[in-house]
Every structure is written in C-alpha cells, then in structure tokens.
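TASK: fixed-backbone design
INPUT:
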C-alpha cells in the first residue's frame, strides 16, 4: 500500500491537478520539481556541450524525464507566475538548438511552449520566428504542429477584434523571410516557402485578408527560386476552388451535412429545443449543432463571385504585375507546365482588371493548335483575356487562328466543338470580331450529325439572336427580343442623362391624380344621393305628419261629437284594416302580372317553336309520337353519306404507297440484278441438288425411326 501511495504522490498528472486546486499548499513540491528540471537541463548540456555543436547519442531516460518535467511545468506555470518566471526563456533557448535534439524531445518541448503561448504567458510575436524555423527541420510531426500553432494563434488573436499594430509586426517578420535573396542556402529556401504557405493559409482563412498580404503573395510569383514561384502561382490560380475550412474536422463534416438543409433545420422549434428541452448533455449537442448551422449559413451568404478569394483583386499595380509576369514568360527557361501557369495568371489578371496588354495575344497565338498540349486551358486563357476595352484589331488574328485551326470539315467532332465553344465565348465578350459571312458559315454546323457540334453551333446562333440578329440568315433569327439590336462600337459609352425609371414615377403620380379625381366625383355623387334621400325622407315625413294630423282631427271630431257611439268607431277601424289588406293584395297581383309578362317576353324572344312548359306526366301516346319523330337507321346512314360526298374516297396509307406510278423500287431492282458467273453456277448447282433429293424422297415411304436398337 505504501508503494502505491508513493507512486500516486509522485505521479505528475495527479500532482498537477492538486496544484491547480490548491496552489499555495504545493509550493514546496513545485520548487522540488523545478530544481529537478534545472539539474536535468544541466546534465543534458554537459552531455552535448554548452554550445550544442556536437551530436552525441542522448541518454533516453534523461530526455524522457526532461520532456515530462517541461510539460508538467508548462501546465502549472499560470498558477505560479513568480516562481516560474524564467522557465519560458529556458524553454525557448533550448528550442533554438532543436536541430540537435531527438524528435520526441523536440515535439514535447514544442507542445510545452505552445501551451505557454495559449495561456498568454508568452507573446506570439516573440516565438513566431522560432516556430517558423522549427518547420524547416525535416520532422513531419513537428512541422505540422508548428504550422497549425502559428495559424491558429494568429486567428485566435484576431477573433474578437483586430489589432493592426500587432498584425503588422507579425506580417513584417513573414515578409522578411519571403524576401528574395540569392545568397540563401537550402534552409533559407525552406523558410521562405513555409512563410509563403503561412501567408496563403491566413489569407484563405480570411484572417489576413488585406492588400499587404495579397501583394506579398503576388510578388512571390517573381521569386528566383522555382519552388517558391510555383507555389505562389498555384495558389493564385486555384485559390477560388479552396473552401474556407474551419479549425476542427468535425465542424467541417457537420457543415457539409448541414449546408443543404440549413433552412429546414434552423426553425423556432429547433432553437427552443436547443435551450429548453432534454438533458444538459443533449442541450449542449443541440447548441453546438445550431452554431454550425448558423456558421454555414453565414459562409453561404458571404460567398460571392468566383474571384472573391483571389488575392488578384487587391493588387495595387495590376498593369505592372501583368507586364512583369509577361516579361518573365518570354525569357523563362522553366518547363512547359510552369509557363502555362504564368500564361493563365496573366490572362486572369487582364480579364479581372480589364487591362490592355496588346503583346499577349500574338504570343498566345503561337500555341493555338489542335495538337497542342493543354489546349483547352490555353483557349480558356484566351477567352479570359478578352474584354470590350481591347481593340478588336489586336484580337482578330487570334480569333481567325482559332476558327481556321479548329472549325473545318477535316477536323474531328470534338475539335470542332471546342473551337465553336471558344468562338462563342470570345464573341460574348467582343461581338465586333464576328462578320456576317463567317457567322453564316459557322451556323451551318447546326445540321451536323454529331450532337455536340450541333449544340455548339446552336448556342452561337442563340447568342447572336440577342446581340446582333441582322448578321444571321432570316430562318436562323427566330423571334429576337430586339430585331434592331447591334453591339456597341469600340469605345462607345452610353451616357445616362436621367435617372432610369423616373418616368414610371410620373405615370404613378398621374394615376394617383386620376384616382383622386374619381374618388372626389364618387364622393360628390354620394353626397347628391344622400341629399336626394334626405329630401325624399323629409317629404315622406311631411306626408305622414299630414296623415297623422288628419287622423288626429278626425279623432277629435269623433270624440267631440257626443252623438257617435262606440259601434261607429269600430266600423271605422274595420274599414281601415280592409283598405290596408286590399292594397297588399293589389301589390301581389301586380307582381304576379309582371312575372307573367317577363315569361311571355322571354317566350317571344326565344321563338314560337318552344313548347309551353307543362307539369303533366307523359302518356303512352306521347312516347309513341317521340318514336315516330326519330329517324330510322337507313335515314341516318343516308344523312352520313350525304355529308361525305364532298370528300374523296378513303384509301389506306399502305395501299396508297403500294400503288406505284413510276418505275421499280430499289428492292425490286436488286432482285433483277445480273449475278456473277460463279454465283449463277452455284445457284444452279444448289437447285439441281434440291431437285434430286425431292425426287428420291417422292417414291419412298417414310417409316420413321426404329423404336429399338
């Protein structure tokens, strides 16, 4: 039990956890381990020499103990900043001589230093040059560890807010490593390449997405070392294809899965469940998934054009860059692939910044041959270098070269297809290169039996239906959107003299005025109608008042006269009620008469032949009369035949085809062809043999096969 307790007490991870919980209680243990680290470091230096110039086999136990002590002290340094103040300096000093150390020891010491940088005990700027040198030692594990640390530390530094002063200092360190120097040795070339890769990665991750970094990467394409130049060219050409990856591979896979269905997953219920439903662990997973969805949606919204990630957008002197690179191509002794990369980069720069580089098109014309290697990339470069600011006379020889070398009857179908596609793309950017005769000749390829060729020709026709329909034959024009459309002349600019769409506002204002006038007229009409209604109501009210006054006078008379009795008053009431009922009956009779009049009018307009509507049930006599009115079968056939008199006699299509008016058909002619003499003799011989066999069989009776053997 004692040995077990001693081993637990001496276990560095256990002691590390205890020190983090109670730093003051374990200060003595810290000093003991720190003294052990210093003694191991002294022994290590004595074995290798103070200057570390000699490479001697290191004792494995000393190296292992030194690595363990370094990692232990790196973990507890944040809790003992005063006691371990000189520990980072010793660690950096030891790593500066890392070329003579073992691989495992170097990796352990590097991880310890990374831990100190992550805890912000050591600044990134102090260790940047050290981590860049560690990448050139030839150790793959150490190279990956140092490279990832540099990228992640700079990204983490700019995550919350950008510190331009610190970023500029770090950029200057990498720019100095990337500078051209012919006296550099092989290690210097490796250091420059690692600096370039670091800049490219930070630019790709949009950490250093500024003009300084972009121009430094573009300047690296003129480097004297071919490896660095090729690395810069490949990044500038293919950086659009590289997606902006995250730090963790799990996050990347999650983003790929959620990119397609981000809109479906991100709903109110999902957001509510992520923070209110489930256990704590499930909530944590749901929140992480929700963050990945939001991050992927932000990325998809930020993605713009194809050249969005390209550093070529941030070039300060694009024309100078293209001229210098074109001069390098003309005097370059590199292999063909490198020259093609340079040509593609020049074409992309010319097209992106709309530069005028007149010498580029005749130089590119030398390579435009169907048998040329990477001809599709060359044609793509030719298309990219064309824009409306280039004079058509400068591109016309190249355009004719493409047409003459690719689009003719002696070429293969795939060659013709490539040529027609290149012609279409160039004409899309510079339609003034095409003339009427050439376009009509190229349009004839729409009748080709090869589908790819006909599709390419039809796409060219469809383009000129919109750009300039007058160059096409009438049957190829179709229904163009603008029959009088013509491409702009070279240098022509449409000057806008007014705000586009302003006339629509005037139309809307006039419509609003008309509507307001109509509304006012309607209001006036409504007011007049209301006045008329009020007048009518007032007249009716006056009449009612007169009637009421008359009734009151009558009542007063009846009441005042003592001679009248109660019976007379009852008789008057009965007569009044009778008068009311008589008026109601008269209204009903009037409505009934008006309905009959309408029915009678409808009957006269429809015609006299319509039978009067009756509600009686049909009898047998009625059914018999209906049968007599129906036509018989013969009468119906006679009517049908009478309708067919104007039409000719019906013949089946096969019968029409069989009736020949000319000579024999090709099939009949083949039967009457004169056969060669050998074929005739063979045919006669076969005929004689068949005749002989039939003659022999005719006299004999066929008995069948025997049932036994």
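OUTPUT:
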């Amino acid at each position: 039990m004692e040995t077990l307790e001693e081993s637990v007490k001496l276990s560095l991870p256990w002691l590390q956890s205890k020190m983090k919980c109670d730093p003051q209680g374990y200060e003595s243990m810290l000093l003991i381990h720190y003294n052990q680290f210093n003694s191991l470091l002294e022994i290590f230096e004595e074995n290798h020499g103070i200057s570390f110039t000699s490479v001697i086999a290191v004792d494995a136990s000393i190296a292992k103990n030194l690595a363990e002590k370094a990692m232990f002290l790196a973990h507890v340094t944040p809790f003992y900043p005063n006691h371990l103040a000189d520990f980072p300096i010793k660690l950096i000093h030891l790593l500066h001589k890392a070329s003579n150390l073992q691989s495992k020891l170097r990796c352990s010491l590097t991880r310890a230093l990374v831990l100190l940088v992550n805890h912000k005990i050591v600044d990134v700027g102090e260790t940047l040059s050290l981590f860049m040198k560690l990448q050139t030692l030839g150790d793959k594990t150490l190279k990956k560890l140092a490279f990832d640390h540099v990228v992640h530390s700079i990204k983490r530094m700019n995550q919350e807010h950008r510190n331009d002063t610190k970023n500029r200092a770090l950029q200057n360190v990498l720019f100095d490593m990337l500078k051209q120097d012919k006296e550099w040795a092989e290690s210097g070339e490796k250091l420059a390449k690692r600096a370039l890769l670091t800049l490219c990665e930070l630019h790709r991750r949009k950490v250093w997405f500024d003009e300084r970094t972009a121009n430094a990467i573009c300047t690296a394409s003129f480097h004297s070392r071919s490896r660095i130049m090729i690395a810069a060219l490949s990044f500038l050409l293919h950086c659009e294809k590289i997606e902006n990856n995250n730090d963790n591979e799990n996050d990347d896979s999650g983003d790929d899965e959620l990119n397609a269905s981000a809109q479906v997953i991100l709903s109110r219920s999902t957001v509510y469940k992520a923070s209110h439903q489930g256990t704590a662990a499930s909530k944590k997973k749901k929140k992480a998934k929700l963050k990945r969805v939001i991050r992927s949606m932000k990325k998809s919204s930020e993605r713009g054009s194809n050249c969005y990630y390209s550093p070529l957008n941030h070039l300060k002197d694009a024309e100078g860059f293209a001229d210098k690179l074109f001069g390098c191509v003309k005097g370059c002794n590199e292999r063909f692939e490198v020259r093609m990369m340079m040509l593609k980069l020049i074409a992309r720069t010319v097209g992106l910044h709309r530069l005028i580089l007149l010498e580029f098109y005749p130089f590119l014309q030398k390579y435009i041959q169907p048998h040329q290697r990477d001809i599709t990339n060359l044609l793509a470069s030719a298309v990219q270098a064309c824009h409306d600011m280039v004079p058509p006379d400068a591109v016309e020889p190249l355009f004719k070269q493409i047409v003459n070398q690719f689009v003719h009857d002696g070429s293969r179908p795939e060659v013709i297809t490539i040529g027609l596609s290149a012609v279409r793309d160039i004409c899309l950017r510079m339609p003034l290169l095409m003339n009427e005769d050439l376009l009509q000749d190229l349009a004839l390829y729409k009748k080709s039996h090869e589908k790819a060729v006909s599709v390419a020709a039809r796409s060219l026709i469809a383009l000129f239906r919109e750009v300039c329909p007058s160059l096409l034959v009438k049957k190829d024009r179709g229904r163009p959107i603008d029959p009088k459309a013509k491409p702009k002349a070279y240098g022509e600019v449409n000057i806008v003299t007014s705000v586009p769409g302003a006339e629509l506002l005037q139309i809307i204002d006039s419509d609003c005025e008309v509507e307001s006038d109509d509304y006012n007229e309607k209001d006036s009409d409504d007011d007049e109608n209301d006045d008329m209604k009020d007048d009518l109501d007032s007249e009716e009210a006056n009449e009612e008042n007169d009637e009421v006054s008359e009734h009151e006078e009558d009542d007063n008379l009846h009441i005042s006269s003592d001679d009248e009795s109660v019976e007379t008053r009852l008789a008057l009431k009965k007569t009044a009620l009778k008068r009311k009922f008589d008026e109601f009956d008269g209204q009903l009779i009037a409505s009934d008469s008006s309905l009959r009049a309408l029915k009678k009018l409808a009957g006269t307009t429809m015609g006299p032949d319509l039978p009067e509507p009756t509600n009686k049930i049909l009898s047998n006599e009625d059914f018999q009369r209906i049968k007599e009115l129906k036509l018989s079968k013969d009468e119906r056939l006679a009517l049908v035949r009478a309708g067919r008199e104007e039409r000719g006699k019906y013949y089946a299509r096969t019968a029409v085809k069989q009736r020949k008016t000319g000579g024999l058909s090709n099939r009949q002619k083949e039967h009457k062809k004169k056969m060669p003499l050998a074929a005739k003799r063979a045919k006669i011989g076969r005929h004689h043999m068949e005749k002989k066999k039939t003659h022999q069989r005719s006299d004999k009776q066929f008995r069948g096969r025997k049932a036994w053997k």
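COMMENT: Residues 502-560 form the longest helix (59 residues).
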